[in-house]
Amino acid sequence: MAIALRTLDDGAWISVDDSRRVSVSDVWTLSRGVFCECEPAYVLLEGFFGTGVEGSVVVADTVGQCLECGTRDSIDRLPVGRIVDGEFKAYSPEAVQSTLESDAGRQA
Amino acid sequence: MPSDVEQWKDELYGTDIRAEIERFAEEGWDAIPDDEHDAWFERFKWYGLYHQRAGQESYFMMRIGPPGGVLEPGQFREIVEIADDFSRGPAENPVFGNGWIDVTTRQAIQLHWIRLEDVPEIFDRLESVGLSTVQACGDSWRNIVGCPVAGKDKHEHVDADALATDLHDTFKRNEAHSNLPRKWKVSVTGCDEGCGQGDINDLAFEPAEKEIDGETVTGYNIRVGGGLSRNEPRFARDIDVFATPEQAVDVAGGISALFRDNGDRENRYNARIKFLMDEWGPEKFRETLQEEFVDFELHTAGEDLRESYSYNAGEADGKHDHVGVHGQPDGNYYVGLNVLVGRIGVDEAYDLADAADEYGSGEVRLTQRQNIVFTDVPEENVDNLRSEDVLEHYSPDPHPFQRGSIACTGTEFCSLSIVETKNRQVRYARWLVDNVELPDGVENFHVHLSGCTASCAQPQIADVSLRGMKTRKDGEPVEALDIGLGGGLGEDPQFAAWIAERVPADEVPGAIANLLENFEEARDSETQSFREFVAERDDEELADLIEPEETDYDDPFMHNTKRTWYPYAEEDDLDESPAPARSDGTPIPSDD
Ligand code: HEM
Ligand code: SF4
Ligand SMILES: [Zn+2]
Predict the structure, then answer these.
(1) Which of A60, B10, B293, B508 has the fewest CB atoms nearer than 10 Å to its CB?
(2) Sheet-wide strand order for B464-473
(3) The CATH number of the domain where B72 resides is what?
(4) CATH number, domain at B439?
(5) ipTM of predicted assembly, 2 dp
(6) In the predicted model, what is the mean pLDDT of chain B?
(7) How confident is the model at residue B591 (pLDDT cuts 50, 70, 90)?
(8) From the candidates A1, A5, A6, A10, which should be mutated to test the interface with B, based on the most B CB atoms within 10 A?
(9) Domain span at residue B373?
(10) Residues within 5 A (CB) of ion ligand 3
């Protein structure tokens, strides 16, 4: 079954099937080079601008700022969770993410 | 492609939402279909209901917007009684208890912990005294702000209250204007102090004079496209239009229709009229308005009064707010009371309602600095009013640090917030009062705290702007604030420059103390205002003056308040949340 995926309340949430599942203003941990040169980079997400699915991975377009070096930039397709057996499982922001997903198969 | 929100609005929006709210209220929270939550919560905003954040499901924030902030006799008391009866949460706030009203920066009242089941009764009670929540949130005409002492002030040039009320009556529940691309914030100023804060609104009416057919007419100049949100602050721009009081509603309707038809409905982040103004510029804007949206010849702008604007201006002489005892033209007085961060506990709110009745006309007005004003107090009552116990807390003569404090909703209820705000700002103000001496001659010092870049507390127009952030301290993520300096309105408004970033929240009071000490030492003279001092220096120089440091100020909210269901609950973990709850407050078990 298709899942309903959208940003809500001016980018405060990623809503999955009408439930607010991923919240903005959290600190995500990204490995070096993905966002800036900090290792790891602790990046505060400031707003979600879009969301989509790539295969089974739910991704978000967002803007963030590194808490260490201050780099502020947009992030395309940050993986924020996975669909497993039709259920959304959110990734933990604390777990280090080393890759952003490829361009393939992206939905608007 | 139109956004989801646009599709939901196409299906059902405006006054049609009311019957659906009544139906859901009748059947209970569970009656809202699981797969329609997003759509309904978006629509509910039009009726002033905003679903609270994660961990607080089934509870709503409710906003009540009286035009110009004027609550007529009896209206304030009814709101207090409603708060007493319905605005109670499952846990206490350590500073404010349980049950309060929030006075907002757009002259509205917000109530929290409202249950859907109670909404129809609340609506009925509001309507019984002539109040409503219509269009208090959502994509339409929001509460119309304006001079809160309109009709009562010696500085008045044109009757802002009459126009604010006309606009309210014309554009609330008006089908042609009920579905706009985005929120629509309108301000009417009638005085020479600029207390309508038009510069930061989508549409601003500002007092002006114009020679028309050999006669001097008093009316309004029009500015369009102001707003503070999203790291994209804009001041409203002069579109070179003067409107007579008779034309003002038609001009407003034309501009609202222009926005309705030309605003971006595909991308909500680009939808506010400030972005259309970026794209078009004031000349094309005026041309389009003239050609397509009004059927009379627009006047060019008249002579304005901006030179004397002092409200929130940071450096001007004149009034910076409405706190204190001030003469009305009729010989009575209005008395402005300071409300720290805009929040009034229910018990004290009853006392205030009593005092307004006993010593004034019972009218209570709300200001954009989150304060309240009693009007029509006869001279012989002023002293008795001042000696009321409740005025110790809600003082007409507060310490400048309390008087200057504004804070938004923050992580307590708001899903966008990065940090705790209101309780923190109360603690900041208390610490500053106890520990910091203001430099000689400084009588106004504004510190505005917003939990995120949406800027509901209007941080960019304060002496010290605080904006929610995070940082890492001793290896742990902690709540932090960006610090900006030198913002203010006035004739030539200026947004604060962001000078220090990611300062741990417990080092901010120390930073403000050091900054003030450095200012006192380095300023040219005792008459130099803080805003002037900042304007003279570049960012690097200013950064050196901030010097964040720990002090004996203690901050209980350094941990991630966002990841709690309620930051002050004993068991604050999201998993401990009692929401969603039935109307009696018992938790509704989840299906899985
Ligand atoms: C749950 C979410 C939110 C809460 C609790 C909240 C709360 C408030 C409050 C209490 C005010 C004074 C408002 C009034 O009476 O109209 C306000 C104003 C404001 N809000 Fe929010 N707000 C929220 C979301 C947003 C969002 C999403 C934005 C922007 C995208 C935003 C931008 C603003 C701005 C810029 C102002 C005031 C400044 C002005 O334009 O005059 N708010 N908000
Ligand atoms: S400024 Fe941000 S945190 Fe504060 S109430 Fe507005 S949206 Fe929420
Ligand atoms: Zn970095």
Answers:
(1) B10
(2) B405-407, B447-450, B464-473, B476-485, B497-504
(3) 3.90.480.20
(4) 3.30.413.10
(5) 0.87
(6) 94
(7) low
(8) A10
(9) 324-398
(10) A 36, 38, 41, 66, 68-69
